[in-house]
Please model this.
Amino acid sequence: MFKMMKYEYRKGLFPMLMIFSIFGVIELFFLYGALTKDESKTVLGISFLMLASFVAYIFVLIYGVTSYANDLKNKSGYLTFMAPISTYSIIGAKLLSTLLTGMTFVAVIAVLAVIDYSLVANVFELESLLELLKEMVSAFGYDLSSILFGMLAFVVTFLIQFFMVVTVAYLAVSLASTVLQNKKIKGVVSFVLFLVLIVLINKVAVMISSGETSSYATFLEAMKEMLPVIGFYLACSVVAFLGSGFLLDRKISL
Amino acid sequence: MLKCNNLVKKYMQVTAVDGLNLEICPGKIYALLGPNGSGKSTLMKMIGGLTKPSSGSITLDGEPLNHKTKAKIAYMPTEAYFYNYMSCRDIGKYYQDFFRDFSYDKYIKLLADMDLKENLKAKEMSSGMMAKLKIAVTLSRSSEIVMLDEPLNGIDIIAREKIINTIISNISDETAVVLSSHLVDELEKIVDCAIFIKNGQCVLAGEAEELRQQQGKSIVEIYKEIYA
Model:
């Protein structure tokens, strides 16, 4: 599986470099604004960086799913499916390389955020703003560290949810490929099926989550709050993974 | 030995392979013959593990086909099947990573014989170059079964003889080779057995020499009689 991951990661290298190049250009724009103490350029740079982060998320999601769908549709998929490894290993390699790509983006964005924040804090003397933020938060009866723990737990949940979304998309693609084989409408059916599944899963996730915003003393406490939803997302991922592997092994013809 | 038992493949209303029975024995070269749409490529894809039979079974040495048996079957599809980013070197490394019977040194030698550069990318290749590359990478494996689907497609008349010689000189006595081609006269000279496929069924099969004697005709003439 790890050998296959190497090739999956390599396939996505060029588009990933393109996205990083866009990040680089926006970062340069932001740095120019920050170093010349131009507030409007700096704010614009931050806004673009946030937008680029969202675009990167959508890109990884779409790329991860189309990589699988294209292998089922295009002849280049023969190379992947000719390899003497199980269908579960192939799907696992695709999922993990997508997750790895997503984590690479998260890591780069996190590092950029820390560096950029330090720079902005130095150049624009933001210490007073941070104090103001702390006071505002405590005025509402919260602690800033508690909010940060909550945010960190949210990031972990977000990554697991991302993994679930990709596996469910794989299941939708596999189901459509099984029933419709090489029909052109297969792509549209996969997408509709995916939307239906995601809406259903999210409805259940909302039902089982506490829905309350609590105060967290530690990160573990924050994670405990998210545990039912995380467990549910993981269960959905496992079912979708096993379902896709089964269909690919027994039913899908290239 | 590879066995196909009552093999059926249906695509919606179309039956590509229809109750086909077949045995492929080691040490022989088989010609899989039939016009377009007769079911040759579907049969090869099923043996290669890319397409699932609707019913029936395929066994290799008594074991039903699964992901492990793919390691014993070297299948060359008729289409170009490499990722665009891959160069000849990348393709060799890929095969080396997944197939224990793959010889990288043999592959490099075959590439040189076919005038293909190691750093040439798949997307930059002409159809003739691609055909040579597919043959080079497939013949660099020492598998029990070698299946080449239309190996002479895209190869000009001058290079065909060289390709055929390359195929013959790169297979061992333990290997069963299955070649499909429209160019029956090119295959007639080299095959031990012939399998004629019509409408997804095996209508005639046997040792080439026996068929010639029984029918009093060449393989080319038998082909014309069956399909004309």
